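DM between two lab members

TW: hey, do you still have the ABC transporter ATP-binding protein entry open?
JB: yeah, one sec
JB: this one, 242 aa:
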Amino acid sequence: MTGEPLLKVQGVETYYGNIRALAGVDVEVRPGEIVSLIGANGAGKSTLMMTICGSPQARTGSIIFDGTDITKMPTHMIARRRIAQSPEGRRIFPRMTVLENLQMGAGLDNLKYFHEDVEKVFTMFPRLKERQSQRGGTLSGGEQQMLSIGRALMARPKLLLLDEPSLGLAPLIVKGIFEAIKKLNQEEGLTVFLVEQNAFAALKLSDRAYVMVNGKVTMSGTGKELLADPSVRAAYLEGGHH
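TW: and the structure you got?
JB:
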């Protein structure tokens, strides 16, 4: 992958009140890559995702997306630049139907593609098609995660941010969701930045990855390199997958 990164995070520090949550983070994601960020609970992974989306804003450092400095932009302006997020905890609209949730994801600029985009989401997640008139709150955890990703895709993003897509889901469902992400990347060329506790699944899927500890990036490399690294294995891969 050559050329300018699609996303370049440089020296970013983010605070909650007086508490520093990110301590000078450097990350880049190039067009067409899947990049993952792994680390223990509370390492600052979700904070980085939220900082990229402008809430909270970085106190120092810069975030450049597609050649534009978005560091101090409000969240809705960042979204309009075609960064879509499937946030941790899914956060779908529980009282709205599946179809209405997808409508909420489609930007006003994309309404002319609405039916085409809905069909794409339904092809990727056939379960959502079966449940399109059901309220979001009545779906299973796995279906809600599919809906959260589907809703993000309705914005036709250049960059998809996925925050803990496998959290609390059965292994089989997780496998399906990771396969869908891989397919989007390969067939549509979608660039994906993924925060994930399931380090094994994330590293297998990713072109490159970063390890975060206490708000700092401590390691980076290809997915394969980090999978093979003894310290990464000891910290994140022991006791489960090998």
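TW: got it. The first strand starts at residue 7 and ends at 16. Residues 5 and 30 are 4 Å apart (CA to CA).
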